[in-house]
Design a protein that fits this description.
four-stranded mixed sheet; 60s Ribosomal Protein L30, Chain: A; homodimer; 10 helices; 334 residues
Chain lengths: 334, 334
């Protein structure tokens, strides 16, 4: 890729220095030097996450570049949301086979729209030639000692999830079918579109994460499947977990297209939701309503932390045989 | 890649949370949660850089994993050095085709040794399956207003470079010849090895960068070729540049193996040096000796910033016809 093409690329991303057209006063030096210089607000702790999307693994070949740009930032904002942090700045490492203007414009638009929504400034980047791979690193703040961790839950704490898990995994399956030339059955259009949108344009729960500071005892973002991620939270907290299958919030679209059994499986094991799963001491329940309003998304109690380690799935009041299989299994079965 | 293999990978990198076995007190939460939580020293500005190495572009297929790990961190430390910043924390996004223990152990050893030397803690990471690609993001600090920028030079400022540029580019050519099954001519061994080491294990000039705070008027790290990077510094400073070809510090190894003309070309246009190039008001010359000692590497005056834009190469007191071709051209000519 000649140097001139990289100048072109720089032009696309330099715009994102000013999210939504508004500069951040805490960006002392943005894109264009050897590194960015930033001002962390006095007394705040810094929160940092990095995540990579690889073509063929995290998105399908031929995926809309808007979606790739959106998701590359969204998965990182979701990590910050899970910490209760307020995102501020992002750095982008983009490896791509060729500098196609149409791709770059759409990718930057997808990333830029989400960045503007959260007032996140792109302050640095590196573009190289190679197989399509996108790493984004996001930085944000949290008041001292208030970061939400995976550890911190205790037996008796209630377990909640935001939104409707499983939708994104179902959406990915529909995307795969479309990519393979499959045709949607009649009547599927609206529900199918809703699920695909959940995969292509997930909503990082940043406002919810902030609202859960000082309230949730532990928090994790659901990226690899609800059951597995909830199990990670429980294990980090030194607990086990009782999950109520009947309580899982299944979206009407997911029920309609997948049927009840498959919907349940997708909600438990499907990846790419980017919802928050958190534990809450029961005494905090009254305050949760306020947080739910601030978070702008439905919250559902799906279980409780217990002393005995491991995950127990209950259905109709009875324990079910259940072996959590996790993300990788699902990815191969889709 | 099954989940279990990623657990294995995590083990290799979790060790790097404690550089050289010593934990950093400013890492409040390291690898293992959704994000890291870090404490920036009061009153310091935050400096952030991200850089990617792609197999086949930044290193040869079959390259020693120690070198890949070293360079992935070194290129980022070099960016922080160019800002005069003190590095503190790194995040790693590693995409690799398979979780081979031998590769991971050597990669982590190469990265870890350099991290320990600079007391940098690895505080986060993301490992995914895919074509071998390494993105590292480094964070550090600088006292308020003291970051070195590319802009800031003025006509009359002297231009310096650290170390002996061109060595790494010559080393890469020797690596390529070896990879192609070529045999080194007799007598080349020691000099050739020295040059190859400069490519495989570059030395980020972190101490020099810090010593140049308040002294250099502008600074850039030399990654894409000295002439091109010096031109970027000059342009960012609103200046042009007179480069003295006869003053370029060519290493004995480079002279011996490349001959004087090719050595000059490599010093001007070869990439991967990771030296610092900086401008200095002549009045600061006496203080530069102190900085040079702190920096621990030779510094050479190679030119002067001028009012007229553009790069002018002088040799034997006469201007030479010279068109800077930059990194990409060199990469194809090697």
């Amino acid at each position: 890729m000649p140097v001139g093409e990289f100048d072109l690329i720089d032009r696309y991303f330099r715009r994102l220095d000013r999210p939504g057209g508004h500069a951040r006063a805490d960006v002392l030096l943005g894109v264009g030097d050897d590194a960015a210089v930033l001002r962390v607000p006095a007394g705040q702790e810094l929160v940092a996450a990095i995540d990579t999307l690889v073509e063929g693994r995290h998105f399908l070949p031929g995926c809309a570049p808007q979606s790739i740009g959106h998701r590359a930032l969204a998965v990182n904002l979701s990590d910050l949301a899970a910490m209760g942090a307020e995102p501020a700045w992002a750095l982008l490492a983009l490896t791509l086979p060729a500098a196609e203007e149409a791709f770059l414009e759409a990718f930057a638009a997808g990333l830029g729209r989400l960045a503007a929504a959260h007032h996140v400034a792109l302050v640095g980047g590196d573009t190289t030639a190679g197989p399509l791979t996108v790493s984004v690193q996001v930085l944000g703040f949290v008041p001292p000692g208030q970061a939400l961790r995976r550890a911190g839950g205790a037996p008796g704490d209630l377990l909640f999830v935001s939104g409707t898990p499983g939708d994104a995994a179902a959406g990915l399956q529909l995307e795969r079918r479309a990519a393979d030339g499959g045709v949607a059955p009649p009547g599927e259009a609206a529900a199918g579109q809703a699920l695909r949108e959940r995969f292509l344009y997930p909503t990082p729960r940043v406002a919810l994460g902030r609202a859960l500071r000082g309230l949730a005892s532990a928090c994790i973002d659901v990226s690899d499947g609800l059951a597995g991620d909830a199990a990670k939270l429980a294990a980090a907290s030194g607990c086990g977990l009782r999950l109520e299958a009947d309580a899982l919030p299944l979206s009407p679209a997911l029920r309609a297209l997948a049927g009840p059994e498959r919907a349940l499986q997708l909600a438990l094991e499907g990846g790419d939701d980017y919802e928050l799963c958190f534990s809450l001491p029961p005494a905090q329940l009254p305050e949760l309503a306020v947080a739910a309003q601030a978070g702008g998304c439905p919250l559902t109690c799906i279980g409780v932390l217990e002393q005995a380690p491991g995950v127990r799935l209950y259905r109709g009041g009875k324990i079910q045989p259940y072996v959590a299989t996790g993300y990788d299994h699902f990815a191969n079965s889709g």
